């Protein structure tokens, strides 16, 4: 046989091969016309029949070989049947058919079969939901498959020129190009239909249960009470199921994804940016973070570092989301400092790491900075997104520790060469946004509205005082008993730490406990202060739809104060929100607290090699110089470009300092290292820690305080100065808490911020910040909810802190200043995430500093200050005075009454008219 490659002319061969290669694309178009669905998902669904048609094509090859083996007329493979066909058509066999001709004829036959089979399979796909799938390394595999036909032609060129090439080889050459193109289309497809998880046992029809009726029968809600607050919910509008909505649904959310998920995921490819999403209740916040992680890991391929109070729970939620998606995570999901250490020592590169602040501070940052063994520095370089959950939760001390810890994290990531963005959740507003910007200096933070497309209706009820104060079992447990007995899921939200976790433990029942505004399940209970009432109100419209539908009922315990009565009267909450006067409460963070900053600076020096200029930018040049000492001499320098500048600077490099043996981490529970321990005198376990300078007025004799839902009393002469501890005694749950008769004097003030005069309407006042010595005196206490007081021997303490002074040049009577101070103190509880022992507003007489008039002072009751002065900017001061004016002017009394005025002001003599005159 001649070595002529083919009988057909070259142009015809090129045209035929083009038709063969374009056949899968034509089949894809036909499938898209028949498979149906939305325009955004039709092409992905149509690719599935194209992939399945590959099996039909390969089955045809096998069938042809079986027929050849059974029939003598089809011997000699494709060349044999071509000769037989030629003889049947022309009556002779003068034409010479070559292997390449046989390959093209076979390819055309298979192309016709492909075009017929793909639409048939598309019709079957039209009304079917198949199982989701994921092709590993889909993009590289698709590129490789497209290149296979070209490589196959080169590899099979020699056999084409042989006289009798193998029959199977001819079959392979005929179907390989078309099959490879079809598989390339299939690898890029993605199942768009939502996953339906089947259950072995059919769900029983659920009878609607009226939660409010259960609470009314139990006495938790008064018989004819109406909801305090109610939201109508948001009904989901129809639309395509896009990638964001699919990630939202597999993360546990219902309905379409909120707009915030789309806005954030479209922007986080740009490094050195920050985004804040506020006002998210639990479980919306949990669903949102899990959906963000699925999008970041799956679509963007970002390496993520997550900082959350419950890292294991969030990691499990992300793993469950990937399982519902039918895909594998792109790498290991590591939770906790121990798992991170094992992964980095084993030179495994996790896709995402989940840590709490303690784990990040104790081991995480050191591992990423290269101070420990493993590939931590290499992994840190790959970090592309840092997620912060509930960034502003906790006490002011905890928030300050979180800020300094994340500053150290930023130093480690910058030193490793990472380029990352930051996504945070919290109560939102200017205070939380400033906090995130303080955690990562140089990162502009943009607040992204949550903007839900679907939300559940919510009804909030107020617990009956008699039910709440009844002795015995905590009211939280009694309120949830009928709800959980009806088989409904429920939750306990405790942002202020009023309950112990044991109060929410029900054997065999679905109850979730969280230190947040919780609206999880069909019903929830919570103890909310003034600030958390505002935060909860702002979060109500953002509750994701319940899996079973319907409304969520929330039962709240609220303090009986003039401010709470004002907010809940005459729809004032709705009016303030509508007029933009209901901002989120601001967290307190001690940016200028020298003791805490020094502790974290020393930790940063032990966590790896540091850049002097970067350390000075984070902690201050003077503090860095003091920590290094006068004898420090840099052995080498680094050339770097200053952040946000084009100038290149030469900065000393500070080697990692050796860790001292037994040195504890910087996350202590006091400002100073001089600590007094509060011990349970009955069980011996430690309860609290307090700075030694503050202990006398914080734990005065006779005080009754709560730790969770347990209560303790401070006995007389309980302070053991040698051991540095106070042993307290447990008391019954119904024992009233106490409030001290506190007097505060501000002295030895030095101005740290020049006085600024503010004119608002007819009001005029000066604002300044001073560092001062604060003297506290406690001469007795009152039992909360009961009249009268108990006198005791005076106890005092003295400490240095920052004070925000609000002074009135026009003067004011002592009664008016005291009335204003006590009213402003109550109003600030709704504007700051702070407790009664964090701040105190007191009147001050003229002479606080040289030339200072009389006024009121906002005292930061923490050693060296915990950010009260910084939080009290002009905007917050103006809002505070407006609320005080509205609270007093909205009451019909002439001089002050229990509705609008604190009891201690009524006892001392109110001056409502004087306060309104000062505030204009």
Automatic annotation (TrEMBL):
Lineage, top ranks: Bacteria, Pseudomonadati, Myxococcota, Myxococcia, Myxococcales
Spans traversing the lipid bilayer: 12-35, 47-67, 102-123, 135-156
Keywords: Membrane, Transmembrane, Transmembrane helix
Superkingdom to which the source organism belongs: Bacteria
Protein name (database record): Uncharacterized protein
């Amino acid at each position: 046989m001649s070595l002529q490659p083919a009988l057909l002319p070259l142009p015809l061969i090129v045209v035929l091969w083009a038709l063969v290669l374009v056949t899968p694309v034509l089949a894809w178009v036909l499938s898209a016309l028949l498979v149906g669905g939305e325009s955004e998902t039709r092409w992905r669904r149509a690719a599935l029949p194209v992939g399945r048609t590959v099996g039909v094509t390969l089955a045809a090859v096998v069938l042809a070989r079986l027929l050849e083996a059974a029939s003598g007329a089809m011997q000699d493979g494709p060349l044999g049947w071509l000769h037989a066909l030629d003889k049947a058509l022309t009556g002779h066999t003068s034409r010479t058919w070559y292997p390449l001709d046989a390959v093209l004829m076979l390819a055309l036959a298979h192309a016709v079969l492909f075009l017929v089979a793909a639409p048939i399979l598309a019709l079957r796909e039209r009304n079917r939901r198949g199982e989701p799938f994921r092709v590993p390394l889909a993009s590289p595999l698709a590129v490789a498959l497209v290149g296979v036909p070209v490589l196959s032609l080169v590899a099979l060129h020699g056999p084409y020129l042989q006289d009798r090439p193998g029959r199977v080889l001819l079959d392979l050459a005929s179907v390989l190009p078309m099959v490879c193109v079809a598989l390339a289309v299939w690898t890029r497809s993605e199942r768009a239909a939502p996953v339906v998880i089947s259950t072995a046992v059919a769900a029983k029809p659920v009878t609607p249960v009226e939660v409010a009726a259960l609470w009314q029968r139990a006495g938790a809600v008064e018989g004819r009470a109406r909801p305090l607050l109610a939201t109508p919910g948001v009904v989901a509008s129809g639309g395509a199921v896009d990638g964001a909505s699919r990630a939202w649904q597999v993360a546990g959310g219902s309905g379409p994804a909120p707009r915030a998920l789309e806005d954030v995921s479209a922007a986080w490819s740009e490094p050195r940016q920050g985004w804040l999403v506020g006002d998210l209740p639990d479980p919306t916040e949990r669903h949102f973070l899990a959906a963000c992680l699925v999008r970041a890991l799956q679509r963007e391929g970002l390496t993520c570092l997550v900082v959350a109070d419950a890292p294991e729970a969030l990691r499990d939620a992300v793993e469950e989301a990937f399982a519902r998606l039918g895909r594998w995570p792109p790498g290991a999901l590591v939770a906790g400092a121990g798992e991170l250490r094992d992964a980095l020592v084993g030179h495994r590169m996790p896709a995402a790491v989940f840590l709490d602040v303690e784990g990040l501070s104790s081991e995480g940052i050191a591992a990423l900075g290269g101070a420990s063994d493993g590939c931590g520095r290499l992994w840190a370089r790959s970090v592309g997104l840092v997620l912060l959950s509930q960034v502003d939760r906790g006490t002011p001390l905890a928030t300050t520790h979180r800020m300094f810890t994340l500053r150290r994290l930023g130093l480690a990531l910058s030193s490793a060469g990472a380029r990352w963005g930051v996504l945070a959740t919290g109560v939102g507003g200017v205070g939380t946004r400033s906090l995130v910007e303080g955690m990562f200096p140089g990162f502009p933070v943009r607040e992204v509205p949550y903007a839900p497309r679907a939300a559940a209706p919510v009804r909030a009820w107020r617990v009956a005082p008699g039910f709440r104060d009844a002795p015995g079992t905590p009211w939280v447990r009694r309120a949830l008993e009928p709800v959980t007995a009806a088989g409904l899921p429920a939750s306990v939200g405790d942002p202020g730490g009023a309950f112990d976790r044991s109060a929410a433990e029900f054997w065999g029942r679905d109850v979730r406990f969280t230190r947040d505004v919780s609206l999880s399940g069909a019903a929830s209970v919570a103890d909310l202060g003034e600030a958390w009432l505002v935060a909860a109100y702002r979060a109500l419209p953002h509750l994701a739809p319940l899996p079973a539908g319907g409304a969520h009922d929330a039962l709240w315990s609220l303090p009986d104060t003039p401010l709470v009565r004002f907010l809940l009267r005459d729809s004032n909450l709705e009016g303030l929100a509508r007029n933009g006067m209901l901002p989120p409460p601001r967290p307190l963070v001690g940016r200028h607290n020298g003791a805490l900053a020094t502790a974290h600076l020393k930790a940063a020096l032990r966590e790896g090699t540091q850049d002097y200029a970067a350390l000075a930018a984070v902690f201050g040049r003077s503090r860095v110089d003091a920590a290094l000492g006068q004898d420090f001499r840099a052995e080498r320098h680094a050339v770097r470009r200053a952040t946000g500048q084009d100038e290149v600077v030469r900065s000393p490099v500070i080697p990692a300092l050796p860790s001292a043996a037994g040195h504890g981490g910087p996350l202590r529970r006091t400002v100073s290292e001089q600590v007094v321990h509060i011990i349970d005198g009955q069980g011996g376990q430690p309860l609290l820690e307090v700075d030694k300078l503050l202990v006398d007025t914080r734990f005065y004799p006779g005080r009754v305080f709560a730790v969770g839902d347990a209560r303790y009393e401070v006995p007389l002469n309980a302070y053991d100065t040698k051991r540095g501890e106070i042993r307290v005694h447990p008391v019954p749950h119904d024992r009233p808490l106490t409030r001290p008769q506190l007097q505060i004097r501000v002295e030895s003030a030095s101005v740290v911020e020049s006085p600024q005069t503010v004119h608002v309407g007819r009001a005029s006042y000066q604002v300044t910040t001073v560092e001062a010595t604060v003297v506290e005196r406690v001469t007795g206490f009152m039992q909360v909810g009961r009249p009268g007081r108990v006198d005791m021997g005076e106890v005092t303490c003295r400490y240095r802190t920052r004070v925000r002074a609000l002074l009135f040049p026009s003067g004011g009577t002592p009664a008016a200043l005291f009335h204003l101070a006590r009213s402003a103190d109550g109003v600030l509880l709704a504007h700051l995430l702070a407790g009664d022992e964090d701040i105190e507003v007191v009147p001050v007489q003229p002479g606080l500093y040289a030339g200072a008039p009389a006024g009121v002072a906002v005292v930061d009751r923490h050693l060296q200050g915990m950010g009260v002065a910084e939080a009290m900017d002009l905007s917050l001061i103006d809002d505070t005075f407006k609320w005080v004016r509205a609270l007093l002017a909205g009451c019909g009394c002439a001089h002050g009454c229990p509705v609008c005025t604190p009891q201690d002001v009524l006892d001392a003599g109110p001056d409502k008219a004087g306060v309104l005159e000062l505030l204009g």
